[in-house]
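Problem statement: downstream parser choked on a complex file, so we are re-checking the raw output for the nicotinamide-adenine-dinucleotide run. The parser issue turned out to be on our end (a line-ending mismatch), but while we're here, posting the original submission so the record is complete.
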Amino acid sequence: MVSRVIPVDSFDLVIFGGTGDLARRKILPGLFRRFRAGQMSAESRIIGAARSEMDADGYRAFVREAVAEFDPDSEGDAEHLERFLARLDYVTLDAKGEEGWTDLAGLLRAGVVRAFYFSVGPALFGALAERLHAHEIASPDCRIVVEKPFGRDLESARALNRTLAQHFEETQIYRIDHYLGKETVQNLMAIRFGNMLFEPLWNSQYVDHIQITVAEEVGVGGRGEYYDRSGAMRDMLQNHMMQLLCLIAMEPPAKFAPDPVRDEKLKVIRALDPVAREDVVRGQYEGTRDQNSYRIEVGNRDSLTESFVAIRARISNWRWAGTPFYLRTGKRLRDRASEIAVVFKDAPHSIFGAKAGHHRNILTIKLQPNEGIELGVTIKEPGPGGMRLVDVPLDMTFADALGPEEADFPDAYERLIMDVIRGNQTLFMRGDEVEAAWGWVDPIIADWTEAGEAPLPYATGSSGPDDALMLMHRDGRRWREIRA
Ligand code: NAD
């Protein structure tokens, strides 16, 4: 198979916060990889804009280091790197002041796609939007990209949407959830809607339950102070995991296009039942001899913030009534492993008798560390000894199935930035979707805040608090092992 890269139109991309952590680790190395792949036209330009005093050469040196650190494959590709660095520029500006804006206006060209990446805290979104208009930098078809967190509750998300709507049309606003840019997440839609095989079984008649796990091995580390203000529910579940839930549960959109897809996702969120207190488990990790506890990492004080949350969710519609969705996410768990598992029901009758054991089909969509899809099927164990059954995976790990070249797909950020340039919003969240997600999450948070309960302790390297295991045990089900 030959890899096909379709170049995007020529663009000017301004990265506000271009010297920040996200720009350094993800955005800039990602753009370089797209340049190297031939997707970025030779005239396109990237302009860093931040408070730090530096000139264009200083910024090029900064980006050179970022690429070397976060895209080690770039070593030995000096020719591409030099050409990429020549496409960079830099403006010192303060989002809240007037300095630098005229310089920025002077750098931008007419007749190319104009995009502004707001890689700064949300408190600055309003100021940036205002100045982009005041200085006549925002063209009618320009795009803005905004980062998470998009609010910390329904009220703040609404306020943020209102602020952006004062200056931009919804079709110009790209709210990033990088999970939607993952290859496997898009493949989930291909598997569901590109095959006849799965969709007829994709409902409560055949699916026993669905598990979504986003497990991290690391703790909050140096981000303790920031994290402690959000917690697992706000940081992971309200956005990334709810997006995965939507894609798994939604009805087939009439078209793979922005509004049809987002309309269907929104319907899923609106069909979610309120969550009862006994269907939520929160946890906080303890330390080990070598690793600090959550409590120590957030400044050696008691905190009621959760580093782990598990929820049993229900969707009240024809397709899913009766099929629970179990979601869990946490830090300092056994392994770094994210997956969605669709667990099918037992066959109605076993012709092989009780000795053949208990077998089930499970479709696993693995998101990290290795992206791929696996379907567990039951076969006869080869050899003599009668009809002994065994479960084997039909493995569709992309690197194996497609060959290493095809499997060298763009990272989520790269893909999404290219979608911004192409003007394709399908993999970005619409304002009403984000608000609906907060509308479901807010009462859950309000409930535990009101109760004032501390999260349950769990051991570093475990699968979370025992109560999370009980959440499934009491339904006669089990979490899958957290394993990379
Ligand atoms: P950071 O603190 O490392 O960088 C912030 C950037 O904003 C710097 O370039 C700084 O110069 C610039 N800045 C700050 N105040 C400014 C002002 N008044 N005017 C102009 N520029 C100003 O932050 P970060 O980690 O890069 O995060 C940026 C955004 O991305 C945040 O909204 C964050 O929540 C989000 N985000 C970050 C990550 C990550 O991995 N770092 C992941 C997801 C989302």
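For whoever reads this later: The longest helix spans residues 431-451.
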